[in-house]
Design a protein that fits this description.
heterodimer, A: alpha/beta, 6-stranded mixed β-sheet, 4-stranded antiparallel β-sheet, B: alpha+beta, 2 domains, 6-stranded mixed barrel, two-stranded antiparallel sheet, 15 helices, 52% helix, binds adenosine-5'-triphosphate, binds magnesium ion
Chain lengths: 233, 450
C-alpha cells in the first residue's frame, strides 16, 4: 500500500479487559493501515474484538498499548477537546442498532453532528446551509419524505439509512460502520450495502465490521481478526 | 445550540418527564403546605404571648411583689426608648360566682387599663369595651360599679365552628373575689388567731380573648388599685409584682432590655436604704421571649420535632426526586454514548442533562408552589366547606383556641423549598450522567436499544 495514501494507521494495538481476576486479552498487538478512499471490511468470529478495534479507531476508546494515527497525527497526543472535534469532523459512526435519538426527527438527528460542531451563535449562521445539506443527504438515501418523522415511526432499514446520513453530514474522512446490516433482513441489508457501495465509489473511505464474509466480498479489502491480530488479507 | 435544543426536546417529548414533573410538584406542594401551617401555628402562638406581656418585663414570681414601682415607672417613662410601661399584679384569688360553674382558686391579674392597653394587646382582647378599653372595668349598665374582666373561656361557650356565643347585652353577673393579704415579709396577715381574708364583689364588665388557652380559661382581670387593696399591697409603700414595658416601634428588644436592666440595677442601688428594699432582690428583668420561655419552649420543642419529621419527609422527597432522575438518565444512557460518538464533549453532555433536570425541577417546583399557595389561600374555605358538608374539622374549634388555619406562606419558605427541590433534581441527574459520561460510552453503545 502506498504510504502517502494512508489515512489511518494502527500499530501494535493491545486491549485487555479486566474482569475481577480474569483477564481477557482481546487485541494483542494488532497492526492495520487504512488507505484513503479504501473500502475495508473487517470480519472475525463473535467476540474476536472487531467492535473494540472500531471504537479504538474512532477514538471512542483508548488502546492499552500501541498507537492510532490519523493523517500522521498520533491520537494519543490529542486532548479531550481535540478528540471530540476529531470524532465530530473526521469520523462518522454507523452502529448496528442505529442509535438515533428518539426525541428528534430524522432531520434533526442528521443535523445533530453539525450542531455539535458549531456553537450556539455559530448555528444561526450555518443553520440554513446545514438544513439544506441534511435534506439533500436524506434525499440521497431515499428518506426525503420522512424528514419530519421520529425514529420509532420508521423501519429498521430506514433508521439505518438515517444513521448513515447522520454519519455523513460533516463529510467525515472515514466512515466506521459496525455491522450496519446485522439487525436487518438480507434484502434491506442489501439496500444498505448498496448505499455503502455508492459512497465508496464517490471516494468515501469506509471501514466496515461484519460477520458475513459474503458481504465482505464487495469491499476492496477484507481482513480477519483471529486471536487478537490481523490474520489474513 | 444542541445544548439548549436537546434538553428542551427531552423535556417536551418524553412521557416520563411529565411523571417526574408531577412527582416534584406533589413533593413541593406537600412540604410548602405543611411547613406553612406548622410555622404559622407556632408564630401565631408566640405572637399572642408577645401581645399579652409587651416587650420587656421587670417582675418577680413572689406574690409579695416589690415597692417603689411607681418611682421606677416614672424613670422608665422618661427614657426615650420606652413607649409605655404598665404596672401589674399577678396573684391568685378565690373566685365565686353563681353564673359560672368554674370557681375556686384562679389567677387574678390587676392592671391599670390606661397604661396596659398601650403596652399589650389587652384592648383588642375585649368584647363589649373593644372600642372604649379605658372603660374595661366599668359595666355598661352602671359604670360606677367595680368591674371585672373574665377570661372568655370561663363563661362564654362556643359553637362547633369555634364562634363564641356572646350575648348582645352584658349579663349582670356578680363575682366575689377573695384574696389573702401578705405582709411585706411574705407572711399571711392575721387578725387575732384567725387568718384575715379580704373579699370584694365585682361586677362582670367584659370578657377577654387573648387566644392563649391557659389565660382565657382561667384569668380574672381587676383594676390594679382594687386588687392592690384586697391583697394588702396598697398599704405602706404600694406594691406590684411586675412592670410590663413596650419599647418604641422598631427598637431592638434585646438592647433595650439591657438598658432597662441597667436602669433597674441603678434604681435599686439608689433605693437600697428605702423601706422594703429587700424585695428588689427577687425582681428580674427579662425580654418577653425569656419571660414566656416556659410557655413557648414546649411549643418550640414541638416545632423542632415537627421540623425534624419534615426534614425527614424533605429528605425522602429529595430521594424520590433523585431516584426518578436516576431512572430517567439511566434510561437515556444510550444517548450519552451517541452524543459522545458524534463528538459532543463530556461537559456539554453533562450540561444537557443538568439543564433537562433543571427544567423539570423548575417546572415541577413552580407548579407545586403555585398549587400550594392557592391551596393555602383556600384552606380555610375548604375546611369550612368540609365542616358544613361532612362535619369534618382539622381542629375541634369548641376545644382549641385556633381561629383559622395559618394560610400565609411568606416568601422565604417557598424560596427555600424551591431551591432545595431544583437542587435535588440537578443532583439527581448529575450523578447518573456523570457515571454515564465517565463510564466508557462504548459499553453503552455495544448494547441494543434499551
Ligand atoms: N467492557 C468490557 N468488559 C469486559 N469484556 C468486554 C468488554 N467489552 C468487550 N468485552 C469483551 O471483549 C471481547 C470482544 O468484544 P467485541 O465487542 O469487540 O467483539 P466483536 O468482535 O465485536 O463481537 P461481535 O461480532 O459479537 O460483535 C468480547 O469477548 C467481549 O465480551
Ligand atoms: Mg461487535
Amino acid at each position: 500500500m502506498n504510504k502517502n495514501n494512508c489515512i489511518m494507521n494502527c500499530s501494535g494495538i493491545c486491549k485487555t479487559y479486566q474482569m475481577g481476576a480474569a483477564r481477557l486479552e482481546v487485541l494483542k498487538g494488532l497492526d492495520l493501515s487504512v488507505a484513503s478512499g479504501e473500502f475495508l471490511a473487517i470480519v472475525g468470529s463473535s467476540g474476536s474484538g472487531k467492535s473494540t478495534l472500531l471504537h479504538i479507531m474512532g477514538a471512542l476508546d483508548k488502546p492499552d498499548k500501541g498507537s492510532v494515527s490519523f493523517n500522521g497525527t498520533d491520537l494519543s497526543r490529542l486532548g479531550r477537546g481535540r478528540l471530540n472535534a476529531f470524532r465530530n469532523k473526521n469520523i462518522g459512526f454507523v452502529f448496528q442498532f442505529y442509535h438515533l435519538l428518539d426525541e428528534l426527527t430524522l432531520l434533526e438527528n442528521v443535523l445533530l453532528p453539525r450542531m455539535v460542531s458549531v456553537g450556539t451563535l455559530g448555528w444561526a449562521k450555518v443553520r440554513k446551509g446545514a438544513r439544506k445539506a441534511a435534506k439533500e443527504l436524506l434525499e440521497r438515501l431515499s428518506l426525503a419524505d420522512r424528514a419530519a418523522h421520529k425514529p420509532y415511526q420508521l423501519s429498521g432499514g430506514q433508521r439505518q439509512r438515517a444513521a448513515i446520513a447522520r454519519a455523513l453530514i460533516n463529510g467525515p474522512d472515514i466512515l466506521l460502520a459496525d455491522e450496519p446490516t446485522g439487525n436487518l433482513d438480507s434484502e434491506t441489508g442489501n439496500g444498505i450495502l448498496k448505499v455503502f457501495n455508492e459512497l465508496h465509489r464517490a471516494g468515501q473511505t469506509i471501514v466496515m465490521v461484519t460477520h458475513d464474509e459474503k458481504i465482505a466480498a464487495i469491499a476492496d479489502r477484507t481482513i480477519e481478526l483471529v486471536d487478537g491480530r490481523v490474520s489474513a488479507e | 445550540m444542541y445544548k439548549v435544543f436537546l434538553p428542551l426536546r427531552f423535556f417536551l417529548k418524553r412521557k416520563i418527564t411529565y411523571l417526574a414533573v408531577i412527582a416534584v410538584t406533589l413533593c413541593v406542594f406537600t412540604v410548602v403546605v405543611v411547613m406553612t401551617v406548622m410555622n404559622g401555628l407556632v408564630t401565631d402562638f408566640v405572637d399572642k404571648n408577645h401581645a399579652f406581656v409587651g416587650d420587656c418585663i421587670v417582675g418577680t414570681d413572689s406574690l409579695v411583689g416589690f415597692g417603689w414601682y411607681e418611682d421606677f415607672l416614672d424613670e422608665l417613662r422618661q427614657a426615650d426608648f420606652v413607649y409605655a410601661a404598665s404596672p401589674v399584679i399577678k396573684t391568685f384569688g378565690l373566685v365565686k360566682s353563681e353564673s359560672s360553674s368554674k370557681s375556686g382558686a384562679l389567677p387574678v391579674m390587676g392592671i391599670d387599663a390606661v397604661e396596659h392597653i398601650k403596652v399589650t394587646g389587652f384592648a383588642s382582647a375585649l368584647h363589649y369595651r373593644k372600642d372604649s378599653p379605658l372603660l374595661a372595668f366599668a359595666p355598661q349598665y352602671d359604670s360606677t360599679l367595680p368591674g371585672c374582666v373574665i377570661g372568655i373561656d370561663l363563661l362564654v361557650n362556643r359553637e362547633s365552628d369555634g364562634q363564641y356565643i356572646q350575648s348582645s347585652l352584658l349579663p349582670r353577673w356578680v363575682y366575689s373575689v377573695t384574696c389573702f393579704p401578705l405582709t411585706a415579709r411574705g407572711a399571711l396577715i392575721k387578725s387575732g388567731t384567725s387568718l384575715s381574708a379580704n373579699s370584694k364583689i365585682f361586677y362582670y364588665s367584659d370578657n377577654a380573648e387573648t387566644g392563649l388557652a391557659k389565660i382565657d380559661s382561667g384569668m380574672i382581670y381587676l383594676a390594679l388599685g382594687q386588687l392592690q387593696e384586697i391583697c394588702g399591697m396598697a398599704a405602706e409603700s404600694k406594691r406590684a409584682t411586675a412592670i410590663f414595658i413596650k419599647f418604641n416601634p422598631g427598637s431592638d428588644v434585646e438592647r433595650c432590655t439591657e438598658k432597662v436592666a441597667r436602669m433597674w440595677a441603678d434604681f435599686t442601688l439608689r433605693y437600697s436604704d428605702k423601706s422594703q428594699s429587700w424585695l428588689f432582690d427577687t425582681v428580674t428583668v427579662a425580654d418577653w421571649k425569656s419571660y414566656c420561655r416556659e410557655t413557648i419552649a414546649p411549643m418550640e420543642k414541638e416545632q423542632t420535632m415537627m421540623m425534624m419529621l419534615f426534614a425527614m419527609v424533605g429528605i425522602i422527597t429529595i430521594f424520590i426526586i433523585f431516584v426518578v432522575f436516576y431512572m430517567i438518565v439511566a434510561h437515556k444512557s444510550k444517548d450519552i454514548g451517541i452524543l459522545k460518538s458524534i463528538g459532543a464533549g463530556e461537559f456539554a453532555i453533562l450540561g444537557i442533562f443538568l439543564r433537562f433536570a433543571a427544567l423539570i425541577g423548575i417546572t415541577g417546583s413552580a407548579a407545586g408552589l403555585v398549587l400550594g399557595v392557592l391551596f393555602l389561600r383556600k384552606i380555610n374555605n375548604l375546611e369550612d366547606w368540609l365542616f358544613a358538608n361532612f362535619q369534618w374539622q382539622l381542629w375541634d374549634r369548641s376545644v382549641y383556641a385556633i381561629g383559622d388555619i395559618p394560610d400565609s406562606s411568606g416568601v422565604i419558605l417557598p424560596t427555600v423549598v424551591f431551591i432545595c427541590a431544583v437542587s435535588a433534581c440537578i443532583i439527581g441527574a448529575f450523578l447518573p450522567t456523570l457515571r454515564g459520561v465517565i463510564k466508557k460510552c462504548v459499553d453503552i453503545l455495544r448494547v441494543n436499544e434499551l
